Amino acid sequence: MYSHDSQDFTLSFFQVGGIHGLPYIPWDGSASVQPPNEEWMGYCTHGSVLFPTWHRPYVMLFEQILHERAKAIADTYTVNKASWQAAANALRQPFWDWARNAVPPAQVISLQNHVDRVHTWPAFSNHTVGDGGSTSNSLEAIHDNVHVYVGGNGHMGNPAVAGRIRSHFLPHHANVDRLLSLWSALNPSVWVSKGDSEDGTFTIPADVPVDQTTDLTPFWNAQTTFWASSGLHDTAKLGYTYPDFNGLDMGNTAAVQRAIQLRVNQLYGNQIFNTFAALSPTTALSLSQAQPTAQSSDTPAAGLVQAGSDNGGQQPLTAESVQSGSGDVSGSLWDWAARIHFKKYELGGSFAVLLFLGEVPEDPESWLVAPNLAGFVHLNNGIAQHSGLGSLEPDVVHPYLKKELHWRVQKVDGTPAELTSLEVT
Q1: I want to staple 335 with a disulfide (CB 3.0 to 4.6 A). Which of 53, 196, 305, 369 is the partner?
Q2: How many CB atoms are located within 10 Å of the residue 368 CB?
Q3: How far is CA 36 from CA 11, 31, 41, 201, 219, in A?
Q4: Which residue has the higher pLDDT, 200 or 412?
Q5: Under DSSP, is residue 219 helix (H, G, I), strand (E, B) or coil?
Q6: How far is 292 from 138, CA to CA, in rounded Å?
């Protein structure tokens, strides 16, 4: 995308990159008034049920512009012109799968927990507290962590200007969109539910109802109408897909669900089974052989997560098949997680709440590489690796966490901070 276009040109990088945040001006005639709130004035629907689907037409817009520019460049070549044109026609926006061979480390991302264990839209979609009992980070919260730990004190760590970082923002959000597709394949009957606009956006007032019919401004789908979440569920109808779905019969929902479950296990499964490996052999064996525990609702009981109630008629899982990514888990285990509440604008910038099991290092510069950094929400791996308890049962873990669980707040520039509204439970 040409960066030397006039800033007044609607499809310039200045204008399109600025949709997400600054300079807080209308894009393509989608608004003619000043933002209805003062806390967040970009178009992005942070903290609401619209977060995943709002970014889908945004990524589509970037890719369409990239595609058209590539074709225009290819048309200027005189040598091997047909080859350049074919390459331009095949060019698509790449995604960055930051959860595979994760950098930052797995504590930042916890993707297997999220994709496999969250089955309601409020819990999946956004980082606002009150999702009905989820014990996993939301898609938005995981997305937030990547922004902060890639961007640090720079542009990528600041939502107001992150959209201008082409090399990171676009591959990052293409992957967020891919994860939306993976999760939707695993939960085919679940889509955008009713919710609250929270802080609002450039065009949506704060604290108003939103749902799958809400206009995803500023993205037009016709001369007079905007995209809405209801029209964004099926990427095939939008003209694109992801490699995870290649060769699948998308008309066979059950087969797609099984194939994507296996794909998720293959790519990200070790994040869960490192916990098993750190437990005592007896505990790990009992978990792998346990029968699934029936649940009475779509949301698991507090603390207990069912790790796969139906293995599709496959053979019982072994440690070897788990670590190679083949098959599903049959059984249940206690899933320990911290619930973290705070006022997100209190510090006026990006920050993280870090959880430690044991003594916190004195030097803040060592916090993110501390061996006892438990992560941000999920605690199972940390408990298994550092406690020596050999069990995740409540009567064993409760006393340990009361004594050993500590937390610190760190800004993106690495300095510690006091967050007066912070509650960790």
Answers
A1: 305
A2: 16
A3: 25, 11, 8, 7, 19
A4: 200
A5: strand
A6: 25
Eight-state DSSP code of residue 120: S
Determine if the pTM surpasses 0.85. no
The yes-or-no verdict on residue 273 having pLDDT over 50 is no
Q: Which sign, positive or negative, has the C-alpha torsion 221, 226, 230, 233?
A: positive
**CB atoms inside a 10 Å sphere around CB 313:** 5
Q: Residue written as tokens 């500023």?
A: 218
pLDDT of residue 114: 60
In contact, 323 and 273? CB cutoff 8 Å: yes
- With residue 83 as reference, give the H or E element that holds it: helix 81-90
What the block records as the tokens of 58 is 């945004």
Residue the block writes with tokens 């911290």: 338
* Mean model confidence pLDDT for the chain: 77
Cβ atoms of 48 and 221 within 8 Å: the answer is: no
- pLDDT surpassing 70 at residue 331: no
Interior angle at CA 188, CA 258 and CA 377, nearest 5: 85
- Tell me the residue ranges of DSSP E strands in 211-272: 215-220, 226-228
